[in-house]
């Protein structure tokens, strides 16, 4: 325990630093000036944005990619309320984000100060912990405790706000050391039951999700898959857990796998709409979760070990008993996978004009490095990205997750660029999605954070227009201006870009984008008739 002195901002910063927080994302407001003062005088980087939701999304990208806390500082009232979609996304994604909010003074609460409102009832349902810190010398404790909560599985966002006088006052206080988070031991009987089910299965499948990456369990996942010879599919941040060339890595044969499997092992992701709510026909379900709170209430899995994912997966790998040979099953799935890959390859080479989204991804795959970070923000255009891009390593794919919030684009891009200054950062954006965050290109330009933005410009809210037409025979509120020059928006904001309408021009345009060194938008005019094929077209 160390004794420190300063105003509330300095006390908060000392606690944040002790926990490995390395930057803040914010949009200015007087209520939080002491946090800026502390950062400014201690060489702590401040990145500012044009809408608070971008600040929270940027913090979330840091948290997701680097598996450490991401910090957003939001001013009182509208600053906080503008950040709520970001907080909610972080809650759905189990991302360890800390939002520090300003707050009207406590000493005259009720007298009608500017932006006087209690944030807690708004943020409590979408955070693991939300608290107002009323005493300056309590700030280091509160920050330390909040970050511990955020990082303890099942992870998630936390919120603190500081009344004006709390953060502006000077005092001395204890600075607690971060406690270290002990791995939670799973129940060995439950793990053994899971291992026996997988080992005895004829046609098992593993689906690995975001908590596998968040829990640093990708190596253990690979060990378990190899030891038990189980094909692996992934979603969310789990993508890239196995390199695409690994004999057990699968992506396209999902339908064959899930309809043919007799045991489905879902690791580190909820049994939600993305996984047919955990209903895989006759297959038994093993649900491996990082905390008991994550066990599904709507499904009765055959086994559901809860605890540190590394420990559970290593225990599966070490299963001492006999196991069924899965070579035939794996070969069948490989044949389905290869056939689907061949079809995809044809689509990705399509010479059509107007351009089909598949071709955009065909060209992107030629220029993306293995460690490139790809970010999806949009509807159908992003569904195509999920299908045609194959992340080669973990921690390189950012999608919005099950909250499905449009508008993550520039915030995630900022967090990714700050996390990985030397990698390619590529945002795949619908033209509709572009409307939510494109103004934050200004923030990226001004703070010298180059990224590439590829817009799939179909002139519509595609993922809504096509289903609405299918349902009603007409559509409303689903059109955008066709062929709008989103590249000129970026140019006006100090970046650069170009519009591409012919397939043959895509490759050179993408090359220019990655060479540009400033935010660069490739505005690809795509075919509005192109609808992403899905069994249920509602999202
Ligand atoms: C904040 C928010 N508002 C609305 C939606 C509903 N929604 C989901 S996809 C979509 C259409 C996206 O259109 P666009 O970004 O142009 O991508 P496209 O489907 O055309 O490829 C909409 C409006 C949402 N998911 N999030
Ligand atoms: Mg669109």
Short synopsis of the structure:
By secondary structure, this protein is α/β, with parallel strands linked by helices. 40% of the residues lie in helices and 16% in strands.
Please, could you describe this protein's structure?
This protein has 539 residues and is of the alpha/beta class. It folds into three domains: 2-175, Thiamin diphosphate (ThDP)-binding fold, Pyr/PP domains (Rossmann fold, 3-Layer(aba) Sandwich), CATH 3.40.50.970; 188-333, TPP-binding domain (Rossmann fold); 350-525, Rossmann fold. It has helices at 8-18, 33-41, 52-66, 78-82, 84-93, 120-123, 139-151, 164-168, 188-200, 210-214, 218-228, 254-260, 309-317, 327-348, 357-367, 380-388, 409-419, 431-437, 441-446, 462-472, 486-492, 503-515, and strands spanning 2-7, 24-26, 46-48, 70-74, 97-103, 129-132, 158-163, 170-175, 204-208, 232-234, 263-267, 284-288, 373-377, 397-398, 425-430, 452-457, 496-500, 520-525. The strands form four sheets. A six-stranded parallel beta sheet has the order 3-2-4-5-7-6, with helices on both faces. Strand 2, helix 2 and strand 3 form a beta-alpha-beta unit. Helix 11 packs parallel to helix 13. The radius of gyration is 24 Å and the shape is globular. The relative contact order is 0.10. The structure holds thiamine diphosphate (TPP) and magnesium ion (MG). Magnesium ion is lined by residues 430-432, 458, 460-462.
């Amino acid at each position: 325990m160390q004794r420190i002195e300063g105003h509330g901002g300095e006390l908060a910063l000392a606690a944040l630093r002790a926990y490995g927080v390395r930057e803040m994302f914010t949009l200015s407001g007087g209520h939080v000036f002491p946090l800026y003062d502390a950062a400014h005088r201690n060489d702590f980087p401040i990145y500012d944005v044009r809408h608070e939701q971008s600040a929270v999304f940027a913090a979330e990208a840091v948290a997701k990619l680097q598996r450490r806390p991401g910090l957003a500082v939001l001013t009182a009232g509208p600053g906080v309320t503008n950040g709520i979609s970001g907080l909610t996304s972080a809650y759905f994604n189990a991302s360890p984000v800390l939002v520090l909010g300003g707050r009207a003074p406590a000493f005259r609460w009720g007298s009608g100060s500017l932006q006087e409102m209690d944030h807690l009832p708004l943020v409590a349902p979408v955070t693991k912990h939300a608290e107002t810190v009323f005493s300056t010398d309590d700030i280091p404790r509160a920050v330390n405790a909040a970050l511990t909560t955020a990082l303890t599985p099942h992870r998630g966002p936390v919120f603190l706000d500081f009344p004006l006088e709390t953060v502006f006052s000077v005092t001395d206080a204890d600075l607690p050391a971060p406690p270290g988070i002990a791995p939670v031991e799973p129940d060995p009987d439950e793990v053994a039951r899971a291992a026996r089910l997988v080992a005895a299965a004829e046609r098992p499948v593993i689906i690995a999700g975001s908590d596998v990456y968040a829990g640093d369990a990708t190596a253990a996942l690979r060990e378990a898959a190899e030891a038990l010879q189980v094909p692996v599919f992934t979603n969310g941040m789990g993508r890239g857990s196995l390199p695409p060339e690994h004999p057990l890595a699968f992506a396209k044969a999902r339908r064959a796998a899930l309809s043919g499997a007799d045991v489905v092992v879902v690791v580190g992701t909820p049994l939600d709409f993305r996984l047919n709510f955990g209903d895989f026909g006759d297959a038994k379900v093993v649900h491996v979760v990082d905390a008991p709170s994550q066990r599904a209430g709507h499904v009765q899995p055959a086994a559901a070990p809860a605890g540190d994912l590394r420990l559970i997966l290593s225990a599966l790998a070490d299963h001492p008993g006999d196991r069924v040979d899965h070579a035939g099953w794996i070969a069948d799935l490989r044949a389905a996978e290869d056939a689907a890959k061949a079809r995809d390859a044809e689509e990705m080479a399509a010479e059509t004009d107007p351009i089909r989204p598949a071709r955009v991804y065909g060209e992107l795959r030629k220029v993306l490095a293995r460690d490139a970070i790809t970010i999806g923000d949009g509807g159908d255009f992003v569904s195509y990205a999920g299908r045609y891009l194959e992340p080669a390593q973990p921690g390189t794919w950012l999608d919005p997750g099950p909250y499905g919030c449009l508008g993550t684009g520039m915030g995630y891009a900022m967090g990714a660029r700050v996390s990985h200054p030397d990698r390619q950062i590529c945002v795949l954006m619908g033209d509709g999605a572009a409307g939510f965050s494109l103004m934050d290109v200004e923030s990226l330009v001004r703070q010298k954070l180059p990224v590439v933005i590829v817009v799939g410009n179909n002139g519509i809210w595609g993922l809504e227009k096509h289903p609405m037409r299918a349902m009603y025979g007409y559509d409303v509120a689903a059109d955008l201006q066709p062929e709008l020059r989103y590249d000129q928006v970026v140019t006006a904001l100090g970046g650069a870009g170009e519009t591409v309408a012919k397939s043959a021009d895509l490759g050179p345009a993408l090359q220019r984008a990655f060479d540009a060194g400033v935010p660069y938008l490739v505005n690809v005019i795509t075919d509005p008739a192109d609808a992403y094929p899905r069994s249920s077209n509602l999202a």
